[in-house]
Design brief:
By secondary structure, this protein is of the alpha/beta class. The chain has one domain: P-loop containing nucleotide triphosphate hydrolases (Rossmann fold), CATH 3.40.50. Helix content is 34%, strand content 24%. The longest helix is centred in the middle third of the chain and has 16 residues. It is globular and about 55 Å long.
Length: 262
């Protein structure tokens, strides 16, 4: 296999007269976290849909896990998983039932064991018997990511995984993403949050008006600006610092209560 888990060359996509992607190029190394950073309307979701075989490109080529997206879409779908902007869990089912259902749909042996292993991996064992409707936003998103890992996909796409989550839930999802990469899974995530890309990504590509205008590590991108001037100032804690200091950032209390949260 090639060193790149994802290779994109010259992708273009238009909707009638609206040019959304204007020749996109980048590579994603295997086992890395690659962040596609851009504002709303930059073309992030369109690009993800093309790479996941949900949308046809107008021009260009793309390979995912050494498989051509255009000529072998079935093979690509077997090698990947996609988690969209909103958690796709069945709120009537328990967390364990959600996982076991997906395992059965993928024709895996012993769906119950698969479900239990993923509940433990994502710190949801204590909540596994509760309906997903009682989960907090962070727990629901972790369950959604766990569901997407069933079948051991080589590449996982996370489309704005922390949209609408509170600071504590965002930290939970960040931990889950780091664990994915540590286990060898290639992660491509889209985000409009600068701190999210800074915290998670091995490489960051900035998508603007349908083009990649910069692509590099965080240090490489920082070197594009003049050296910072050293000043000594009194740093006041941010509201997020205060919030996390008061409530903690482990999220463990969520798993031991049966209260419904939104």
């Amino acid at each position: 296999m090639t060193a790149a888990a994802i290779s994109v060359r010259g992708i273009e996509k238009s909707y009638k007269d609206l040019r959304v992607l204007r020749g996109v190029d980048f590579d994603v190394a295997r086992g890395s976290i690659f962040a596609l950073l851009g504002s709303n309307g930059a073309g992030k979701t369109t690009l993800i849909r093309i790479l996941c075989t949900l949308l046809r490109m107008d021009a260009g080529t793309a390979r995912v896990h050494d498989l051509d997206v255009s000529t072998n879409p079935a093979g690509v779908r077997q090698a990947i998983s996609l988690t969209g902007q909103f958690a796709a869990v069945d709120e009537i089912l328990t967390g364990r039932e959600n996982l076991a259902l997906v395992a059965r749909l993928r024709h895996l042996n012993d769906p119950g064991r698969v479900a239990d292993e993923l509940l433990a991996r994502f710190a949801l064992t204590d909540a596994g018997g509760r309906k997903a409707s009682t989960y907090s936003g962070g727990m629901r998103r972790r369950l959604d990511i766990a569901m997407s890992l069933i079948g051991d996909p080589a590449v996982i796409f996370l489309d704005e995984p922390t949209t609408g989550l509170d600071p504590q839930a965002r930290l939970e999802v960040w931990r889950a993403v780091r664990e994915l990469a540590a286990g060898g899974t290639t992660v491509l995530l889209t985000t409009q949050y600068l701190d999210e890309a800074e915290q998670l990504a091995d490489r960051i590509a900035i998508l603007h008006r349908g083009r990649i205008i910069q692509n590099g590590t965080l240090d490489e991108l920082k070197r594009l600006l003049p050296p910072a001037e050293v000043e000594y100032v009194e740093k006041q804690p941010s509201l997020e610092d205060v919030f996390l200091a008061l409530v903690g950032d482990t999220g463990q209390s969520e798993q031991t209560t049966g209260e419904e949260r939104s």
